[in-house]
Amino acid sequence: MARFYMQKGTHKGLYRSIQKTLKFFQTFALLEVVHCAVVRTSVLVTGVQVSSRIFMVWFITHSIKQIQNEESVILFLVVWTVTEITRYSFYTFSLLNHLPYFIKWARYNFFIILYPVGVAGELLTIYAALPYVKKTGMFSLRLPNKYNVSFDYYYFLIIIMLSYIPLFPQLYLHMLRQRRKVLHGEVIIEKDD
Ligand SMILES: CCCCCCCCCCCCC[C@@H](O)CC(=O)SCCNC(=O)CCNC(=O)[C@H](O)C(C)(C)COP(=O)(O)OP(=O)(O)OC[C@H]1O[C@@H](n2cnc3c(N)ncnc32)[C@H](O)[C@@H]1OP(=O)(O)O
């Protein structure tokens, strides 16, 4: 991403140049939900985290080409990238039993800023998509039809945006609890899923 920006001097076209890698890795992140069976984490928290990313990748940025050059797309892409580099470095060094304190510190501090910034990028992108969705009626089903059901993707997106209000604090508070546990050694009794 940095190389693209330095070579072209613009963020326009950046999404296009990284989309294959992005789709591949974010789709495979579904395995993280499966891995909840073997690692100590909440399937609910991981499920919400992974499904929101998959939704952003496939049902927003992949499907609505007109928004791929929005600054908000670059915002959440940069945030996701920094987060995952830190997180997977943390996992790798932990498995090797040689975890540098900086990586541990970064894993449990960067999110304090990155989470809200990432959420802002995602919400602004969905907001930018709304006019196109309304104009084209994409992914929507109008009556009358043989199934006798209607579905409006435009209102569905508004519901998704509103769902961040109850769901995002759950993820943020989860990470704050993890931070207290890992960095300050507090014993925290987690409620079961
Ligand atoms: C259908 C439409 C759905 C739409 C839904 C709308 C929902 C809206 C609300 C959601 C908003 C989300 C927005 C989000 O996308 C924005 C961002 O991400 S911004 C970037 C900032 N984000 C973060 O910092 C969080 C990143 N995510 C995570 O940290 C985790 O995925 C999390 C789900 C939070 C779980 O973390 P937790 O610390 O609980 O568990 P871990 O899985 O990290 O670790 C548990 C233990 O397992 C070990 N582990 C895990 N995975 C591995 C691995 N691959 N390899 C090796 N070891 C692994 C890990 O070391 C832990 O071990 P131990 O307990 O011994 O320390």
UniProtKB/TrEMBL annotation:
Its main location: endoplasmic reticulum. Catalyzes the third of the four reactions of the long-chain fatty acids elongation cycle. This endoplasmic reticulum-bound enzymatic process, allows the addition of two carbons to the chain of long- and very long-chain fatty acids/VLCFAs per cycle. This enzyme catalyzes the dehydration of the 3-hydroxyacyl-CoA intermediate into trans-2,3-enoyl-CoA, within each cycle of fatty acid elongation. Thereby, it participates to the production of VLCFAs of different chain lengths that are involved in multiple biological processes as precursors of membrane lipids and lipid mediators. Keywords: Endoplasmic reticulum, Fatty acid biosynthesis, Fatty acid metabolism, Lipid biosynthesis, Lipid metabolism, Lyase, Membrane, Transmembrane, Transmembrane helix. The chain crosses the membrane at residues 108-133, 153-173. GO terms for biological process: fatty acid elongation; sphingolipid biosynthetic process; very long-chain fatty acid biosynthetic process. This is Very-long-chain (3R)-3-hydroxyacyl-CoA dehydratase. PANTHER family: VERY-LONG-CHAIN (3R)-3-HYDROXYACYL-COA DEHYDRATASE, VERY-LONG-CHAIN (3R)-3-HYDROXYACYL-COA DEHYDRATASE 1. It is a multi-pass membrane protein. Pathway: Lipid metabolism; fatty acid biosynthesis. Pfam families: PTPLA. The keyword Iron does not apply. It is an enzyme of class 4 (lyase). GO terms for molecular function: very-long-chain (3R)-3-hydroxyacyl-CoA dehydratase activity. It is found in: Endoplasmic reticulum membrane; Membrane. Belongs to the very long-chain fatty acids dehydratase HACD family. GO terms for cellular component: endoplasmic reticulum membrane. It catalyses: a very-long-chain (3R)-3-hydroxyacyl-CoA = a very-long-chain (2E)-enoyl-CoA + H2O; (3R)-hydroxyhexadecanoyl-CoA = (2E)-hexadecenoyl-CoA + H2O. Its EC number is 4.2.1.134.
